[in-house]
Design brief:
By secondary structure, the chain is of the alpha+beta class. 18% of the residues lie in helices and 29% in strands.
Length: 300
């Protein structure tokens, strides 16, 4: 471990991460005007947040810091690629990893990887659907827009809350904490469309005061020590591309998983590519036209 990384990572093993995250969640709900306005101004300056993109630019109108942090954007600042063969990024962020899944293993960083079944909470049969598939990891920093949207049209099948740790998800931690995304608490959200299944995983982190979805509301905190599962297969919950599906407080990570052959481009993106919600992240492969697909022969 490099000395700079050491001082960023080692203390995380010692500090009470869940307690500090609960404290942050409480602080983000403080409505005292001078406290929340000062906090918004300071962090906007530190993280260079572009308030001009917000639907509501006046910071005084937000009831607390969390409302500002999960602010809505003006309709025209995130144009969406609605091409039928295109997946769009579900979030603003940095594509920190994009790689084919090697059997059941996903490369996190040099000398560090984790299994698909560990990421999805130990569901071995579900994990098998992504054998030799594709994966992409998108890191959201505090400056990014923190609502999560659909990458493509699909039906919601189920969701699982997987309890875990709350390490930071910054690059230094990714480089040095083995199996980071399969160790932190997370929401494993399962979808399906005409192309097959896919999975979107919301990964929690220290100071991520809460994770929530549009269909269940706030999931954390409280931090439950046991796995929780919601089955939506009989509720016919369909979402269209770019529909909002959830929110993070503070920075965190989204992991996308697709089966073998469904979306090869998802595992071929240059590392550390910045992306905005609504921009193309990958497209379905073009169907190869064969002689049997188009037989133009005629009888004489």
């Amino acid at each position: 471990m490099k000395i700079f990384d050491f001082f960023k990572v080692a203390p995380q093993y010692l500090i009470p991460k869940h307690f500090l995250s609960q404290l942050m969640h409480w602080f983000m709900q403080v409505e005292t005007p001078w406290i929340k306005n000062t906090t918004i101004k300071v962090l906007t300056k530190i993280y260079k947040i572009d308030v001009s993109e917000a639907l509501e630019e006046d910071i005084n109108t937000y009831p607390h810091f969390n409302a500002f942090f999960t602010r809505a954007l003006k309709p025209d600042v995130r144009p969406v690629d609605y091409s039928s063969d295109v997946w769009v990024s579900p979030v603003d962020g940095l594509i920190s990893q994009s790689t084919p899944i090697d059997g059941n293993r996903i490369i996190q960083a040099k000398c560090h990887d984790y299994t698909v079944e560990a990421l999805v909470g130990g569901d071995i049969e579900y994990a098998k659907q992504f054998q030799d598939g594709e994966s992409a990891v998108i890191y959201l920093s505090p400056k990014d827009y923190h609502r999560i949207h659909m990458p493509t049209d699909a039906k919601l099948l189920s969701m699982t809350y997987v309890p875990g740790d709350l390490f930071a998800v910054n690059p230094a931690t990714v480089r040095n904490i083995d199996g980071l995304f399969a160790r932190n608490e997370r929401l494993v959200i399962r979808f399906e469309n005409e192309h097959g299944p896919f999975c979107l995983v919301m990964v929690g982190a220290i100071f991520v005061g809460s994770m929530e979805t549009v269909w269940e509301g706030k999931i954390t905190p409280e931090y439950d020590p046991v796995l929780r599962h919601w089955d939506y297969s009989d509720r016919n919950l369909h979402f269209e591309k770019a529909d909002e599906i959830g929110r993070f407080n503070m920075g965190s990570t989204v992991v996308l998983l697709t089966p073998n052959g469904q979306l090869p481009e998802l595992g071929q993106i240059r590392q550390n590519t910045p992306i905005k919600m609504g921009e193309k992240i990958a497209s379905y492969p073009t169907k190869t036209i064969t002689d049997t697909d188009n037989d133009y022969s005629t009888e004489e």
